[in-house]
Write a structure and sequence with these properties.
Thrombin, subunit H; Pdz3 Domain; six-stranded antiparallel barrel; six-stranded antiparallel β-barrel; 42% strand
């Protein structure tokens, strides 16, 4: 009996176990040694380096210039001279999505002005410089597409942002502070389906639904840059940071940009369906705070800081009978909550298509149908 106990202890000290398989004793090693752990660490490091190397040639720095009048004193005459100069209005990041020069970035990166004197300059990681043409700004999301004219350019492969779990390792690349080009930070996906209200340096405020939260450091100038996975595929477009905390950054899921990319490829411009409402996505907390009858869905809501109505006049929503205060909680049988935000569901439709809405109006359930039209920039 004592010999059997000694034998069992000896086997486990070796880090192995004897099991019976098919009537025979089988020796199985179950110990993970130090070299195995080091290999796992090296694999992660190697995958990181390979992914960055794969993506970096397609990441670009974007600078926006606008013609403006400046005054200067002529030291010889003492007179003030008025000159027309190109003034740098801002900078950011973008990334090539096609070999013929389409670049995806944020709308707030290129939105310095609608003036015809605006000039977009693009610099590749190779140092090659281009002038770019604005193709369009997305009316539904903080996205824009510009184009440089060349061929056989490096471009980034698109991933699937619907399949990324929390904890996924991600890498952010961008033009930090407008002077540290192609800076790289690494972290994980910290949260999914976030709703945030962001503002740019000009004070423009925009609400963003279904964004990815990451602790990969995103700095000023990173806007428009890619958030990639360890396969070197872009899964998000870096868009914002929460300055009240640390390492709290946000990216627009790449799947929310795919309809934009498709319409630019097929039509040459950004085409988006319009419903014509202002809304906020509800959470159980916000619903309770406002004493609403449903704790999820899109609440048609007029911000007290805006003079714009909750439902735009003569819009598809107005014609369908949607009113301020309504809660849209289903579209064509699809529940509106979490990742299925109003934006993410509607952007898959096309102008001219019908959409059926289930609405909670002070506890009363209504079914309304709207014919979507097209956003006009």
């Amino acid at each position: 009996m004592n010999k059997q106990k000694i034998l069992i202890i000896f086997i486990f000290v070796l880090g192995a176990v004897l099991t019976i398989e098919g009537g025979f004793f089988v020796y199985k090693n179950f110990r993970i040694n130090q070299s195995t752990a080091q290999n796992i660490q090296l694999d992660d490091q190697e995958a990181t380096v390979i992914s960055i190397k794969k993506v970096m040639p397609a990441v670009v720095s974007i600078s926006v210039y606008e013609q403006a009048q400046t005054s200067a004193v002529n030291l010889n005459t003492g007179e003030i001279e008025i000159r027309n100069d190109k003034i740098n209005k801002g900078s950011g990041t973008g990334f090539l999505i096609t070999a013929d020069g389409l670049i995806l970035t944020n709308k707030h990166v290129v939105n310095a002005s609608v003036s015809k004197t605006v000039e977009y300059r693009v610099v590749l990681s190779s140092g090659k410089k281009y002038f770019a043409q604005l193709i369009g700004r997305d009316p539904l999301n903080d996205l824009a597409v510009i184009k440089i004219f060349d061929k056989n350019l490096p471009f980034i492969e698109l991933g699937d942002s619907d399949k990324i779990p929390i904890g996924t390792t991600v890498i952010a690349i961008g033009n930090v502070l407008g002077k540290y080009e192609n800076s790289v930070t690494k972290g994980i996906v910290s949260g999914l389906g976030r709703t945030i209200a962001g503002s740019d340096q000009a004070g423009n405020v925009e609400s963003l639904d279904n964004v990815i939260q990451t602790d990969a450091k995103i700095n000023l100038g990173n806007s428009g840059g890619p958030l990639i996975d360890l396969n070197g595929k872009v899964i998000g477009i870096n868009v914002a940071i929460d300055q009240s905390g640390q390492s709290i950054g946000f990216a627009i899921p790449i799947n929310d940009a795919k309809t934009v990319i498709q319409s630019v490829r097929e039509i040459g411009r950004i085409v988006r369906p319009r419903l014509g409402i202002r809304y906020v996505m509800l959470t159980p907390e916000s619903a309770q705070e406002n004493k609403l009858t449903k704790n999820y869905g899109a609440w048609v809501f007029k911000s007290p800081d805006s003079d714009q109505p909750a439902v735009l006049k003569d819009s598809p929503a107005d014609k369908a009978g949607i009113l301020a205060g309504d809660i849209i909680y289903e579209i064509d049988g699809q529940k509106i909550d979490g990742k299925n935000t109003l934006l993410s569901v509607l952007q898959k439709r096309k102008p001219g298509q019908k959409a059926g809405f289930k609405i909670d109006r002070n506890g009363k359930i209504l079914v309304l149908v709207a014919v979507l039209d097209e956003f006009k920039e």
